Amino acid sequence: MAHGSKLMALNSQRMSILLPTGQPRIESMRMINITKRFPGVLANDKVNFDVKAGEIHALLGENGAGKSTLMRQLGGLYRPDGGEIHLDGKPVQFKSPADSIQRGIGMIHQHFMLVPTLTVAENVALGLPSSRGLQLDLDKVSQKIEKLAQRYGLKIHPDAYVWQLSVGEQQRVEIMKALYRGAALLALDEPTAVLTPQEVDDLFKVLRGMAADGHALIFISHKLHEIIDISHRVTVMRDSKVVATHPTAGSTKTQLAREMVGREVILQYDKTPYKPGAAMLRIEDLVVMGDRGQKAVHDVSLIVREGEIFGIAGVSGNGQRELAEALTGLRPVQTGRVVVAGQELTHAKPAQRIAAGQSAIPEERMREGVVKEFSVSENLILQDHGHEPYSRNIFLNFDAIAKESKRLIDEFRVKTPSAETPIKNLSGGNIQKVIMAREINRKPRVLICAQPTRGVDIGASEYIHQRLLEQRSAGTATLLISEDLDELLALSDRIAVMFDGKIMSIIDRDKATVERLGLLMAGVKA
Amino acid sequence: MSELFSLTVLTGIAYSGIRLATPYLFAALGEMFAQRSGVVNLGVEGIMLMGAFTAFAMATWTGNLWFALFCAAFIGLLMGLAMSFISVNMQAEQGISGIGMHLFGLGLSSLLFTKFLGSTKAITGFQPIKIPLLGDIPVIGEIFFNHNILVYLAFLLVPIAVWVLNKTTLGLKIRAVGVKPEAADSLGVSVSKIRYLCVSFGGVMAGIAGASLTLALINLFQENMTSGIGFIAVALVYFGGWTPVGVTLGALLFSLVNALQLWIQVLDKDKVIPSDFALMMPYVLTIAVLAFGKRTNQPAALTKPFDRGSH
Amino acid sequence: MSKINRRKFLTIAGTLSAGAALTACATPAPTAAPAAPGAAAKPAAKQFKIAMVCPSLVNDAAFSQSMYDAIMSVQKEMGGESALMLKYSDNVFQVPNAAAAIRDYAGQGFDLVIAHGTQYGNSLQEIAKDFPNVAFAWGTATDNFESKGLKNVFAYNPKAEEGGYVLGVLAAKMTKSNVVGVCGPVEAGDAKTFVDGFKKGVTDTNKAAKVNVTYTGNFSDVSLMAAAAETHTKAGADILTGSSQSVVGAIGIAKDKKIVWFGTQSNQANLAPETVGASQVYDWSGIVKEMISMINSGKKGTVSFESTLKNGGLKIVYNDKVAISADAKAAAAAATKDIADGKLKALP
After folding, report:
1. β-pair partners for A479
2. Taking CB atoms and an 8 Å cutoff, what residues of chain B touch C16?
3. Which of A471, A491, A470 lies closest to A480, judged by CA?
4. Is the pLDDT of residue A12 over 70?
5. Cβ pair B218:C28 closer than 8 A
6. pTM for the whole thing?
7. Together in a domain, C330 and C187
8. Could you report the predicted ipTM of this complex, rounded to two decimals?
9. How far apart are CA B308 and CA B294, in angstroms?
10. Residues of A with CB below 8 A from B189's CB?
11. A83 in a structural domain
12. Which chain A positions have a beta carbon within 8 Å of B36's beta carbon?
């Protein structure tokens, strides 16, 4: 391998300690005064950041703070407009991803860089020279993958196709790709965003092992408890600048949140007293089929009352998605009944549900919540464009639409260049605010809300939570489906746990604890 | 009509089918590589016309068929490079620029033909070569081992294409670039280089496909003589599910049915079957296969330009 | 629109216009050649102006060339450009484009506008109505639209079956395998009558001979035409014939297989001198001359012309480089005479 011999040469010069992969360690990596501009945006403003061998250094910041841009420069995808990158004290320049890889840097991108139609071994071998010249040597690659997998505790089948793998498995393939290429420094961009709690635990085990072996690790996240759990040091970025770098030990979530958002963040909300009213959403013995024809929702019955947030907890894939889809008319109901505000809507179309006073915030917000190519204002009137004030007869009233859009954008603090900006150009949090604005503006009596803050930064999450609590005070009956236990505990009045399509138990908030919910989520009846 | 199932006729159909498949095979295999790398080149037809003209002109002037073939391949390379530049660097809409390339080839080949040759005179093209021993096997020898050199080359290309695509590091890069270019890019594979290579190769193959018409199949040139072969070659890539074997089977099926319908016309003395009906057969078949076949293999990044900053 | 988009657009536009421009200049520009130097001095009768629209190139060695050659020969006879001027648009296969060209020419003061293609008929009928002072001609066709009230349309039609029959006689005399192949384009018009006449000529002359006929379904698919010729040879044919501009594909195969080809529409001997035994040549010059004299005397239509062996509109032209026995030629000559005298029907 060409770069292998080069690294050997470097190694003999430096006499450094080898990693288990046989590669030399990167003792230190420093990014000094990095500045990166895009047309109209200063993405990195004199950023300083460093990591040492054996260290897990967390990079914390809200979406758009400049974390990913900084990492893309380390990975050779962008070149800095100013500043230097030093490896082991020497300045280096990365002209391309290949350059960066050759220097021992591995990037695990938030969106996996895997080719789904290829096998694990093929993904790993892609772009590498083969020991057989022109011809591939996948058998040898597979052997080496298995050896590395064993050493690092990564469960991987080299011959499996990537499209067959779960998200967690795909992430392991990404890590394998980096290790196989001799990565001494590994940068992981939001690696836990798509993982289940179990997969997060497995990942952390692997990362701790790698640090112990002498790898340098950069862990990018905006999840505070994970950063406190895994990292040795933390650097906080806000508005393209570094605002703090300090050891993680002794930091609190409140402190990190303040550094990240730039103001005091409320992690515990003040709730008005729980005063449930009449039953607004009544679900009786509901059965819904999943994609593969199995019973995904199994005889579920529950009642959500006026002025109540009813939480549904559960590990992803236990029927929550199918339940939400059935309630919004996107998936047929097999048997059972759904009654909204006294009106039977079991088999109703989405429009009938809206007319009955039901709003929904869907889990797949890009697919089911908005029309990507439409502007912010068009998305704001998506379901309501057919009646006043947005239209009269068959004509849209553009003045009224513009006025109303502006009011909603201001009221819901949507950060957008203009109401006419295509919504796909907004961040996840702001897209969610647009959906919230549209759905809540309708003054719903029932709100079906699925994973409202997944992938949304902490500032926007806090705002979304406040709005949900406002709706509660206003008397809306909210069904809140979430995989984030902190969110459920902070907002809900009662919590049901779903497991294998069934409701395990319904618990009042004051009797719910993380431990109790965790056991129920694993299918253990207390 | 019972003669249809006589040995002579069946042999004739098989022989003609194989012979007819040659230009489709060259063009479609080249196009398959372009598409596997993520670029649809709808200009195949135009490149074929230029290849056909170049080969014919060179053969007329120099009498050297191999030199003529080389020149056609070279013209194909130039047009393939132009198409690469338009689709990779300029990131133009591939469908439209492909049509532009077709019109360019159509217009330029007609212009050059009128200007430099004017009227046509048939050339003596590549003659059938009987392969020793194999060519003497009854029936089999006649069907498979008594063709001109370009037929052999076209079919030799199939296993080579399979090998390159599935067993080499280059093939792995091509497969990756066509499905997820950003993944290949992140591993230091140059998406541009791979696409240039594949589209240019497709151009060379289209040039040779055109030459196979004038140097072996027809021995004459006429304006717009390809009359849709290049477009059918593009369809065959979809038909064949983006695999060399699939594309080959598609080309053979299409050609065999075409040969069959001609034989039906020859044997159907009393015109029981209207000629129009016989003529529809290959197209009906193509539509049927496209409609009912599964399209799971389409490269995910097909027709999508790659830009590192855009994701 | 971003900068890149505009650039993209320009690229595409550039490619397209380059292609279009090349297509346009590939065909000789439809402008009249400058008048001959002496023309102005000559106080001859006023210049007669003809415009022609045809579906393939005027050097297609077939249908379009036959009319082009005829007008050129009439021009020569009349004394060149100054006496007869021709403007033409060739390779206009699409009817809407042809209709536009015919309308343009009609409005430009031509004495005669020839729509040389059966498919142009419907369009011509509408256009001729709008230009009652311009004479039009179309073919191959038998309907001059007089029944539709038009007084300014000539029609012309070759009795292609006559030459077909004579060539069939030659083929029947020459075949050794007793199998003759016919490569037809579309089963319609003069292609069909030629094929039918040829078949009758063969079978009347040689009862043992078989005639195999294929059609490719269009006038332009050269490679399918080649495949058809290939199939005929596999089926044992040692003489081939065929009609339309796409037969070059078949002639290439005939040359390759060293068998004899009989052509029609134009003299095809120069495509493959050692292969083409004889051609039925459409000589429209007689009809063109007659139309000119009628127009000059004020008659602008209502006549349907027929090209026949008798009136010289059809000719059998032999190619000396291909040996044909005197016996065969004599039989052909006899058939020609019988047809001309009306003693023999060329069509079944």
Report:
1. A310, A448
2. 96, 99-100, 103
3. A491
4. no
5. no
6. 0.77
7. yes
8. 0.88
9. 32
10. 126-127
11. yes
12. none
